[in-house]
Design a protein that fits this description.
single chain; 225 residues; alpha+beta; 4-stranded antiparallel sheet; extended; Sarcoglycan_alpha/epsilon
Length: 225
């Protein structure tokens, strides 16, 4: 840790999906807490026609935020996280028709959620999704045609800052003169003999019974005896 944040070293291992060539690079990332903290209103969208590397550039994220502003009705949106759908249990797409892996994009805002997003996650919309239908939406889809949003996978969150508990109060380290030091109460001795006998005798008794049963079957159950 230093004065302005945390310096993190991250080794990235990438591969070419066509030639399977790999390359490693060490990135030094400075993590600085957001000035206003984490935004309380967050929404996570599943983009079905994109791979994760296509939404990492700043220009692609700006385009996505402009499309999000059309349905969120807020102007302070920013991207919190970009995650591949493969990391959420998604399947690797078939290498046909240009199919994509899918990307989860989490967007945050300090303003409230729009009625359009609320209607898309309403119980009626969830019921339509369970029937394989499109959810209800009270606004025009501004993501099309650049981003294909899977509206049935839309997740809305309201994150409120948790109250911080006061830290420990450190004393001077010197015992006060009043009173004497009282050591902790001694633990009374425990009798471990019954437990030891049960642990030892029960398996021994079972082994003896098994030996008697096996001897009876092999010796007394023979033909002619």
């Amino acid at each position: 840790w230093h004065r302005r944040g945390c310096l993190l070293g991250l080794q990235v291992l990438a591969y070419n999906r066509h030639t399977y060539e790999t390359v490693a690079q060490l990135l030094l990332i400075t993590i600085v807490p957001a000035p206003g903290g984490e935004p309380p209103y967050q929404g996570e969208f599943l983009v079905g026609n994109r791979n994760v590397e296509e939404l990492l550039p700043v220009a692609a994220q700006e385009m996505f935020l402009q499309a999000t502003a059309g349905v969120w009705e807020q102007d302070d949106l920013h991207v919190i996280n970009v995650t591949s759908a493969l990391d959420r249990g998604g399947r690797v797409p078939l290498p046909i028709e240009g199919r994509k892996e899918g990307v989860y994009v989490k967007v945050g805002s300090w303003g409230g959620l729009s009625p359009c997003l609320a209607s898309a996650t309403s119980p009626q919309s969830r019921f339509r999704c369970s029937l394989g239908q499109q959810p209800l939406a009270s606004c025009y889809d501004t993501f099309a045609p650049h981003f294909a949003i899977r509206w049935c996978n839309l997740t809305l969150l309201q994150v409120w800052p948790s109250p911080t508990s006061p830290g420990p109060v450190w004393g001077s380290g010197v015992l006060e003169e009043e009173g004497d030091f009282q050591p902790p109460t001694e633990v009374p001795p425990r009798d471990l003999l019954p437990g030891y006998l049960v642990t030892l005798l029960v398996p021994l008794l079972v082994a003896v019974l098994l030996c008697l049963l096996l001897g009876h079957l092999m010796c007394c159950r023979r033909e002619g005896v």
